Description:
Chain B: Homodimer. Part of a TRAPP complex. Heterodimer with TRAPPC3. The heterodimer TRAPPC6B-TRAPPC3 interacts with TRAPPC1 likely providing a core for TRAPP complex formation. By secondary structure, chain A is an alpha+beta fold.
Amino acid sequence: MSSELFTLTYGALVTQLCKDYENDEDVNKQLDKMGYNIGVRLIEDFLARSNVGRCHDFRETADVIAKVAFKMYLGITPSITNWSPAGDEFSLILENNPLVDFVELPDNHSSLIYSNLLCGVLRGALEMVQMAVEARFVQDTLKGDGVTEIRMRFIRRIEDNLPAGEE
Amino acid sequence: MADEALFLLLHNEMVSGVYKSAEQGEVENGRCITKLENMGFRVGQGLIERFTKDTARFKDELDIMKFICKDFWTTVFKKQIDNLRTNHQGIYVLQDNKFRLLTQMSAGKQYLEHASKYLAFTCGLIRGGLSNLGIKSIVTAEVSSMPAFLEYNG
């Protein structure tokens, strides 16, 4: 039941952002920023609750994200596919995305990345464990695709322990 | 199912977001509170629709308020309202001794003035829920000490 609270609240947020910002690109950026701020805090909660140890490589990280984190916070287990030959990129395939329950994109918002908060969350959380990554949606059921696909790309390990900045 | 932690973080981010893009001053503060309250309203409307799909018709206003205090509050905040008082003339006071959205903040008077920012969404939530149950209301909240002791006047 409480997932509906989150879903509906997220919907109200996106609606408000669309009113506040004139174009979809700005809304996408805002969602990413907010997601980042959430991610840098969520990781603490995650580490405290999940007892997961340090991940030794990107593959382990992928597993933890899909099987533990997504399950814990959104109740779904995306599948991991499309590994790049170098092992630095993979896709998360979400058969269903709880954020978009009850949601339809109106025609005038075709470039809105509705669930972009998720990309920010992933980026922020992983930065706190010393990984710089890029997360982006490449397929979206809201836009008519069969599944929702998030592409994750490992950029580099963050060696310096600079304090996290809020954006 | 989305974890409570995720919702709390989202709510806090929403409050910061709304205030970040606003300027200083009483009027702006009011506008931000209204924005948050309106968001809560929409969510409350949606939520109550989902919750009461299969429940029996409510007998009267008091029955509805009891539903809000027990089922609704439990589903949203994982606990019931601690105390419900009414003057039987349309005013209800709901008291929550450990309001979940404020428990993360330090106890003490210093943050009291900011507490209203974190209550606006919830006021809207209640107002929206009541609205879809056919009740027009005004919902206000008060914090007397952190973590909260809240009063809602419906």
